[in-house]
Amino acid sequence: MHWLIPKFLYRIYEKKLFSEIKNKPVPNHIGIILDGNRRASKILGLNYEDGYHLGAQKLEDVLGWCWDLGVKVVTCWVFSTENFSRPKDQVESIMKLAQKYLIKIREDPRITKNEVQVKILGRTQMLPSKVQEEIKITEEETLKFNKYRLNVCMAYGGRAEIVDALKLILQKAEAGQIDLNKLDEELISSHLYTEDIADPDLVIRTSGEERLSGFLLWQSAYSEYYFVDVHWPLFRKIDLWRAVRTFQRRQRRFGQ
Question: Is the pTM of this model over 0.85?
Answer without folding.
Answer: yes
